[in-house]
Amino acid sequence: MDIVILAVVIAVVVLGALGGLIVGSRRKKQLPPPPPAAPDITAPPAEPHVGDEAETPRDEERRTIEEVDLPDGSTGVAVEEPPVVEELPPTEIEVPEPTAGRLIRLRARLSRSQTALGKGLLTLLSREHLDEDTWEEIEDTLLTADVGVAPTQELVDGLRERVKVLGTRTPEELRGLLREELLKLVGTDMDRVVKTEPEASKPGIVMVVGVNGTGKTTTTGKLARVLVADGRSVVLGAADTFRAAAADQLQTWGERVGAYTVRGPEGGDPASVAFDAVKEGKEMGSDVVLIDTAGRLHTKTGLMDELGKVKRVVEKHAPLDEVLLVLDATTGQNGLVQARVFAEVVDITGIVLTKLDGTAKGGIVVAVQRELGVPVKLIGLGEGADDLAPFEPEAFVDALIGE
């Protein structure tokens, strides 16, 4: 009996404990938050009056028109003057120096770097005895000046004969003798005029070729100045589309003298730009179209193939009047190699020698003329805008031998 009572007591205790656990766990659970109270709704502000700030209008005192004081006209009403807009000045067009006698004016600059040749020859020819060693020194002086082997031999043979006949030699006689022989080499009977005379149906068309670094684009811009100084109207074609900023450079040159520049996208088709330039020149009635071409390409197409294409496309309008090859006078024999390559593709009609003021190798004039059979028509004598001059043989030789 005692065992039964004990079992009942244990069962009651166990049930009580379990019930406490269940109630405690329910109390630990959080009740869900109460639903939010309904927000206070504020009435929207009234519409603002015209010209007022966007805020609730205030009660204002109303006045009739009779109560408003109107001006009687006795006091002046200040009228605000409209602001004065300053007009920008038009782009100033430069007036280039006239080309007549330009090389003579630049003779001093040329002679500073070229008289080494002339003075060296005069010093050697003034020796009392002209033996074989002296004549070899004369040959070396001429070769060092890039005159070339064949022209050097011709000059030395001519000098030998003239000195032998002359006998006694005064400085004046030697200078005159050397001047005559140099003029024979340079050539005084070659046509050195840049052909830009327009015909009735077309402008004169000039294509400028040469490798980059020779001053090709700058020469094209300077040539535009030469033509403008002679009273010609010029259109520039920026067909060097593969050199960064070449078109910008050419356009700047053109704007200085009022020449219009036709250009295309960077890396575009040079032949297309050249075609458009000639077309524009025709429509504008311009006298001359100058086309600046690429000196190198960044494509698989060869430079010479591209130049040939430009020439063919331009000649769909009209034949070219001039193809000018720009050479750096400081490159010497390398310049002759360049000249040969260009002459094989386009018919070179004239040569422009740049940087002639920075070298004592004035004999390149003779060598390149002999190599190509075409005359030097223009020479560059500095960095100035008007330092491009028509080549004049007499002035050039006089600068070589000095006064």
TrEMBL record:
Name of the featured protein: Signal recognition particle receptor FtsY
Location of region: Disordered: 26-82
Enzyme Commission identifier(s): 3.6.5.4
Keywords of the record: Cell membrane, Cytoplasm, GTP-binding, Hydrolase, Membrane, Nucleotide-binding, Receptor
Domain of life: Bacteria
Gene name of this polypeptide: ftsY
Subcellular localization, as worded in the UniProt entry: Cell membrane; Cytoplasm
Main location: membrane
